From TrEMBL:
Single GO molecular function: S-adenosylmethionine-dependent methyltransferase activity
Enzyme Commission (EC) number: 2.1.-.-
GO biological process: methylation
Residues in the signal sequence: none
Protein name: Class I SAM-dependent methyltransferase
Record carries keyword Lipoprotein: no
Sequence ranges assigned to domain Methyltransferase type in this UniProt record: 50-146
Keywords on record: Methyltransferase, Plasmid, Transferase
Coiled-coil zones: none
Pfam (any one): Methyltransf_11
Amino acid sequence: MPDPSEHKQTVRRAFTEQATAYAAKTSVSDPKRIARLVDAAGVTSTDSVLEVATGPGHVAFGFADHCEGVVGVDLTRAPLQIARETQRERETGNVDFVRGDAEDLPFPPDAFDVVVCRLALHHVERPRRMVREMARVCRPNGTVAIGDLVVSEHSGRAEYQNTFERLRDPSHVRALPISELIDVVTGRGVEIDHLETGEVVQNVEDWLATAETPEPRAVDVREMLREDAEADLSGTRPFWRDGELFFSQQTAIVAGRLLE
């Protein structure tokens, strides 16, 4: 098994290089998408919230409007710097950002009422360990909520998508099918009371540019998507519009109560 520390270096490098482009990406910053996670978590005005893998902090700020306080934690300095700059501009007083590892969170047990993560689980090599940590720092009867990319329930089709996702961005490890995502969450003692699905339509060239994918790998990604458009190999349904190639990433939000 690869050394997890090596992959974390890959994640740091990727999100240092693409920090600004990623923060500006509409699918990441879209308030309506963030609101769906806030609603799924059922957050109240007295709740303390932890966002794991906060990146540029969009989700943390979305929660800050509805709760007592939010802490955003991330492995990489560059997106945290963007989050802190935004905090200063907005003068948001109930948000704090700290650096830390999602697989070894720097907080004591039962420290938060709500623990959330969005668009990050597919970047970790040990998703069960990450969710275990999320559950550890959540109080009993608190809420754990995860929003992420999901792939086909059929292993060959799932691997086809994960392969071109990794070619585009080596920090991508593996998006899970919904059934496995549910199993990972319930395995940590969460009773799911909310499940919803959605999709993000990606312009392939913009998507490649955000990750600064080297051209030789970008060529391979484009070819895989063209083949997918012809033969339906992954479920991402690539298509052309006005001469440009697009495809659809499926997403899911899973949320529930942490049992005592």
